[in-house]
Amino acid sequence: MLKVMNMRIKKNTKLKVCGLTLMQSLESQSVDLCFFDPQYRGVLDKMKYGNEGERQKGRAALHQMSDETIIGFIIEIDRVLKNSCYLMLWIDKFHLCEGIKQWLKGTELQIVDLITWDKGKMGMGYRTRKQSEYLLVLQKISH
Predict the structure, then answer these.
(1) In principle, which of 2, 43, 55, 129 could form an S-S bond with 94, CB 3.0–4.6 Å?
(2) Model pTM score
């Protein structure tokens, strides 16, 4: 059992709590490794799709995160990570090319590596079709 926010949480249990609220309840410098897979809107907003509900019902059902929400999570992740520990951040090709530096302002997180995952199947593309996803490795570096 894990005690968080004055609750006892059974491991490997689906939680029904705001992620930011959960992060804020954790002690500073108490986490060794964090995986973050934000539901970002960057490419959708740039392409001005707006019709995700018609084409991709599963994706449309997910709560999309604004840059401000993603930054809020990253600030909390930076706070709870121990020094020299890692954030594994899933990003898409759009964010890989456009950059995520604005998400890291005011944190002690530095990009140290990139892992490319071959999904083994071709995806739908805009200009090109790809079959990979990207895991950006960030390390908390104390100055």
Answers:
(1) 43
(2) 0.78
Residue-range definition of the domain harbouring residue 108: 19-140
Contact criterion met (CB below 8 Å) for 64 and 44? yes
How many angstroms separate the CA atoms of 138 and 52, rounded?
A: 31
pLDDT tens digits, one per residue of 73-87:
999 999 999 999 999
Contacts with 26 (C-beta within 8 Å, 6 or more apart), sequence order: 4, 76, 80
Residue positions counted in the chain: 143
> Six-digit token pair at 40?
């970002």
Note the pLDDT of residue 66.
87
- Find tokens 């706070």 and name the residue: 79
**Helix runs in the chain, H state only:** 19-25, 42-47, 52-55, 57-61, 67-80, 93-98, 101-104
Q: What is the CATH number of the domain that holds 59?
A: 3.40.50.150
CA angle 90, 96, 98 (to 5 degrees): 135
